From TrEMBL:
<dbReference type="InterPro" id="IPR023406">
    <property type="entry name" value="Topo_IA_AS"/>
</dbReference>
<dbReference type="InterPro" id="IPR013826">
    <property type="entry name" value="Topo_IA_cen_sub3"/>
</dbReference>
<feature type="binding site">
    <location>
        <position position="9"/>
    </location>
    <ligand>
        <name>Mg(2+)</name>
    </ligand>
</feature>
<dbReference type="InterPro" id="IPR034144">
    <property type="entry name" value="TOPRIM_TopoIII"/>
</dbReference>
<feature type="region of interest" description="Interaction with DNA">
    <location>
        <begin position="187"/>
        <end position="192"/>
    </location>
</feature>
<keyword id="KW-0460">Magnesium</keyword>
<protein>
    <recommendedName>
        <fullName>DNA topoisomerase 3</fullName>
        <ecNumber>5.6.2.1</ecNumber>
    </recommendedName>
</protein>
<keyword id="KW-0238">DNA-binding</keyword>
<keyword id="KW-0413">Isomerase</keyword>
<dbReference type="GO" id="GO:0003677">
    <property type="term" value="F:DNA binding"/>
</dbReference>
<dbReference type="InterPro" id="IPR000380">
    <property type="entry name" value="Topo_IA"/>
</dbReference>
<dbReference type="InterPro" id="IPR013497">
    <property type="entry name" value="Topo_IA_cen"/>
</dbReference>
<dbReference type="InterPro" id="IPR013825">
    <property type="entry name" value="Topo_IA_cen_sub2"/>
</dbReference>
<feature type="active site" description="O-(5'-phospho-DNA)-tyrosine intermediate">
    <location>
        <position position="310"/>
    </location>
</feature>
<dbReference type="InterPro" id="IPR023405">
    <property type="entry name" value="Topo_IA_core_domain"/>
</dbReference>
<feature type="site" description="Interaction with DNA">
    <location>
        <position position="61"/>
    </location>
</feature>
<feature type="site" description="Interaction with DNA">
    <location>
        <position position="168"/>
    </location>
</feature>
Length: 722
């Protein structure tokens, strides 16, 4: 009887599958059993060919040779992982293998990983698809008992391939056009450019912003604070100092009378379960984790620890078939800080509503929730523990009752002027009791909370107004993006669009990019030095601002890329022909190249240093990398880079901020913004008293590692547009 070959996306997943499938014979690049052979990719093993593959003329970058529009896109084996591809191809072509099971990640990109390998290897035998949302032994067994025909996922593959080809056609053509035209390392892309445009537009708004003074009038009445409110507009601030002064004059020494007391019982339902973008937002707000960092931690929790379901999801709901598993999932997390709230839910019978269970709102994968795997919290790193904590608390809160409170609104009349006060009495903490301190859980709602504790008040009550005062404030400019707010803007770019119909289209698609790609897009903008972080805030660099001035207008708009995502979504549902879409992309790439060539704009490096590149002699550029300052050669073909300072994890002994490492070899020293300096030897000695030498060496090695610049197709694109 023939064997079944199982293709996983990574070695760690392959080992889990092999264990469940009773494969225990380890070989070079695969694990074999009596019935199954499990092998793996290393992410993408196959990718779209470089332009050079389509003829010698593309080996040098000439603006006259653009646009590059191959009739048929070629696939090539990625050099770095060619050995593993050879092993997988050999297994696919084995005479005793008569069936393949695709077990790569259950999503658009995972489908592409497998299909390109299959195409490049020329495999023609029957194929099935394993489609699972968690990596527990139970989920794997159930998945293999319910394998799907691979053809069910053909449209998902066409959508993934169309996305890659569109990125190639637009990204590579525009990148070459910009680089040739302006003689600088410039790149553009269908998602990264509109994202950068939003950051640049926000910076321009901040620069143009002129703060205005406003005043609010407050006073004490019967032991609580009341605030003036405009009778017509209900605003509690005025932009006229004269008006504020005249109100104070009018109410000083006067008696106020309560003319209305309104009591309302209010309910606040728990937030919806997490999809990836919402989780990345919360992790950035609470822990300052980047979107990419959160995704990497999630992959660990999903693949290695098997504690959470598939991370790259855009749904915040679960399907009805998951409901019977909720009790088991709750029992598996009923430890430590989660034991009490879980017991409360299990005691009162699980109450699921359409805020959590809705089949119509789940596409490929349901919301991120815990698996049935019992958890050992001590096995998690602090970062994994933080992300796991967010997921578990959100899961418990979705299954918990509403937060209930009584809101009291008091209205006063003071000599013809209207004043108001609000008070809140909590009736039941409900889902908020899951969160320590029960305070403000969602930092998005940063409106001033004017609730205070009010004494018993009644209509008609009178009292003298005490200590009236005008409080001066200034209007604030729009805030700079953080990764959390940038993810929100990418997810809902409709607010940046005037056209009503397009606004709706944008709200019904996934916005800019997908949950799976947004983190990489943001990382790419950092790695190409278009944006930089200062604390949590994101600033565009001069290079980023200039690029937005050079790029053709419609590539900057979120409308266009959202339309593409909508088209890709329709391709995945079999409603749009991929070749029609690619035809449109070729026309679009041609139009963009022409726009770049016709432009009369200029590009100027304003960060040139006096230090020459040791490889090619050009003056190098001073840039802020993710881990510190770097010198970069402006020549695309040279690409030399040198680290000048590295932001270390070592804390300053005086002010406890992270210190920079400057210098090379034995001349390395630690510098802090507060002025503290320490030579490497002194640091080693100080640290040596607290930790062993091995740990110090490990720490220094971590600081020296060069940051990886991008992934898979992003790697390929990086070659064409640093």
């Amino acid at each position: 009887m023939g064997k079944i070959l199982v293709l996983a996306e990574k070695p760690s997943v392959a080992r889990d599958l092999a264990k469940v499938l009773n494969c225990n014979q380890n070989s070079n690049g695969y694990i074999m059993g009596s019935k199954y052979i499990v092998t793996w990719a290393l992410g993408h093993l196959v990718t779209l060919a470089d332009p050079e593959a389509y003829g010698n003329k593309y080996k040098s970058w000439n603006i006259e040779d653009l646009p590059m529009l191959p009739n048929k896109m070629e696939l090539v084996v990625i050099k770095q992982t060619a050995k593993q591809f050879g092993i997988v191809k050999g297994l696919l072509n084995r005479a005793d293998v008569d069936q393949l099971v695709i077990a790569t990640d259950a999503g658009r990109e995972g489908e592409l990983v497998a299909r390109w390998i299959i195409m490049k290897a020329g495999f023609k035998k029957p194929i099935k698809r394993l489609w699972i949302s968690s990596q527990t032994d139970k989920a794997i067994k159930e998945g293999f008992a319910n394998l799907k025909p691979a053809k069910d996922y053909d449209n998902l593959f066409y959508s993934a391939q169309s996305r890659s080809e569109a990125d190639w056609l637009v990204g590579l053509n525009v990148t070459r056009a910009l680089t040739c035209k302006y003689n600088a390392q410039l790149s553009a892309g269908r998602v990264q450019t509109p994202t950068l445009a939003m950051i640049v537009a926000r910076e321009e708004e901040i620069k143009r912003f002129v703060p205005k003074d406003f005043w609010s009038v407050q006073a004490q009445f019967n032991g609580f604070t009341v605030q003036w409110q405009d009778k017509v507009t209900n605003q509690t601030r005025t932009f006229s100092k004269e008006q504020a002064d005249s109100i104070i004059q009018k109410i000083t020494g006067q008696v106020g009378e309560i003319i209305e007391v309104k009591k309302e019982l209010k309910k606040e339902l728990s937030p919806l379960a997490y999809d990836l973008t919402e989780l990345q937002r919360d992790a950035n707000r609470r822990y300052s984790y980047s979107a990419k960092q959160t995704l990497n931690i999630m992959q660990k929790l999903y693949e290695t620890h098997k504690l959470v379901t598939y991370p790259r999801t855009d749904s915040r709901y679960i399907t009805t078939d998951i409901v019977p598993t909720l009790t088991e999932r709750l029992k598996s997390i009923a430890i430590g800080p989660y034991a009490k709230p879980v017991q409360n839910i299990l005691k009162n019978r699980i109450n699921v509503t359409n805020r959590f269970v809705d089949n119509s709102k789940v596409t490929d994968h349901h919301a991120i929730i815990p698996t049935e795997q019992f958890v050992n919290l001590s096995a998690l790193s602090s970062e994994e523990r933080n992300i796991y904590d967010l997921i578990v608390k959100r899961f418990i809160s979705v299954l918990s009752p509403a937060f209930e409170y009584e809101q009291t609104t008091v209205k006063l009349n003071v000599n013809g002027e209207s004043f108001t006060a609000r008070g809140k009495i909590v009736k039941s903490w409900g889902w908020k009791s899951v969160y320590e301190g029960f305070g403000k859980v969602d930092e998005d709602n940063e409106e001033e909370d004017n609730n205070q504790s009010l004494p018993e008040v009644q209509k008609g009550q009178k009292a003298k107004i005490i200590s009236p005062k005008a409080v001066n404030g200034k209007t604030k400019p729009p805030a700079r993006y953080t990764e959390a707010t940038l993810l929100s803007a990418m997810e809902h770019p409709g607010k940046f669009v005037e056209n009503k119909a397009l606004k709706e289209t944008l709200e019904n698609t996934s916005g800019l990019g997908t949950p799976a790609t947004r983190a990489d897009i943001i990382e790419k903008l950092f790695n190409t030095f278009y944006i930089e972080r200062r604390g949590k805030e994101i600033y565009p660099t001069s290079k980023g601002i200039q690029l937005i001035g050079l790029v053709p207008n419609d590539l900057k708009s979120p409308e266009l890329t959202a339309k593409w995502e909508q088209q890709l979504s329709l391709i995945s549902k079999g409603k749009v022909n991929p070749s029609t879409f690619i035809g449109e992309m070729k026309n679009y790439a041609t139009k963009l190249v022409s726009a770049v060539i016709a432009s009369s704009e200029q590009f100027r490096h304003d960060n040139v240093t006096r230090e020459k590149c040791p490889e090619c002699g050009k003056y190098m550029l001073d840039v802020n990398g993710k881990k510190g300052k770097m010198l970069l050669c402006p020549d695309r073909e040279c690409g030399y880079r040198k680290t000048v300072t590295v932001i270390s994890n070592a804390r300053c002994p005086e002010c406890h901020k992270k210190m920079e490492i400057r210098g090379e070899g034995e001349k390395k020293s630690f510098y802090c913004v507060c002025g503290y300096r320490e030579k490497l030897d002194a640091f080693k000695q100080r640290k040596g008293e607290q930790v062993n030498k091995k740990e110090v060496a490990q720490f220094l090695k971590q600081q020296d590692t060069k940051e990886s610049i991008n992934s898979a197709l992003a790697d390929a694109l990086a070659k064409w547009g640093k």
